[in-house]
Amino acid sequence: MQIDYEIKLGYDDVMIRPKRSKTASRQLVDLTRTYIGLNSGQKISGVPIIAANMDTVGTMEMAMSLAKHQMFTCLHKFYDSEELIKFWGDNPASDYTFYTTGITSQDLKKLKFIQGSGIKIKNICVDVANGYTEVFQNKVKEIRNAFPDSLIMAGNVVTPEMVQELLISGAADIIKVGIGPGSVCNTRIVAGVGYPQLSAVIECAEAAHGLGGLICADGGCREPHHINKAFGGGADFVMLGGKFAGCDECGGEWSYSESGEKKSLKFYGMSSKEAMTKYNGGMASYRASEGACIEVPYKGPVQDTVEYILGGLRSACSYVGAKKLKDLSKCTTFVRCTSIK
Ligand code: 5GP
User: Is the pLDDT of residue 92 over 90?
Assistant: First the structure.
């Protein structure tokens, strides 16, 4: 047994220190980024915020709306092949979507079928709860071999050595970082496993950037300041689940008021009992539910949430003198604090 005594930080343990700035107006801050995948050479451009591949949030409707803002959606993996092929046919939102796959033989069969349909899958997200297994690393490499030109995002992990392993041996382009910070995630409660998210982002970003790779900070961004801190800490992309849950573009079970208006949405983790029951016919007896189920209030069209988030991000950039999102990390000094208010 070993204990790491160095204090690791979550988003709420810091604030961003303001700095003398020449950025005249936050309106002028450029939030778009262009990256080239380390192993694919594939280019990706846009505002690097991604809707999570949860079945309520990673919907085609979400992808259509977010694409208008040059933002991304990781489509959930429960769409059948025909629906996906039809969606990608001639849809301008395609460039702003990721195809999600797990690593079971069924997942890989579906991926091959879609590949065989002639539709070009530009961006692929290989997603498992625990990215530390050897089998995961091997499957990522297998997918890379089958899709040499696709941008591959793989995860989740939280430590630099595994980021490097997945970039080098797995040949992924973007590593998804986050174990346990999600708004409907119970892993830290059930398993006690995780890593404070801001430190995970800072350490993993440094490891990835040293090799020319990218990271996506996944989970725990409940408010705009969490997103700003993720980018300030070096994240290249930020993935959001709960923040987009409850918007019009979400799928799932809505509750309605007596007058028939949307009141709330049932939002659950993809490892929750609810999700397992819906997609796997129940929880295996050897597993504990690692996801919660909550009701989130109705939030209106996702555009409102997008404007709120991007307004906060522009504000953070202007406070530290970053003319572009690209400069935010360079311009960021975090102040350790005991409370954010
Ligand atoms: P949020 O933005 O809601 O804080 O976090 C979204 C992320 O939570 C997802 O992208 C995914 O990585 C993670 N997540 C989703 N469902 C579950 C779950 O049931 N269990 C765990 N451990 N994580 C989950």
Answer: no
Residue 68 exposure: Cα atoms within 13 Å on the Cβ side: 11
Residues with Cβ within 8 Å of residue 179, at least 6 apart in sequence = 129, 130, 156, 157, 158, 187, 193, 194, 195, 200
pLDDT tens per residue, range 310-325: 999 999 999 999 999 9
Distance of alpha carbon 44 from alpha carbon 33, whole angstroms: 8
The number of residues making up the chain comes to 341
Interatomic CA distance for residues 238 and 225, integer angstroms: 12
- pLDDT of amino acid 260: 96
Q: Which of 72, 100, 184, 218 to mutate to test the pocket of ligand 1 (most atoms within 8 A of CB)?
A: 184
Q: Are strands 14-16 and 33-36 parallel, antiparallel or unpaired?
A: unpaired
Q: Please give the distance, rounded to the nearest whole angstrom, from the Cα atom of residue 220 to the centre of ligand 1.
A: 8
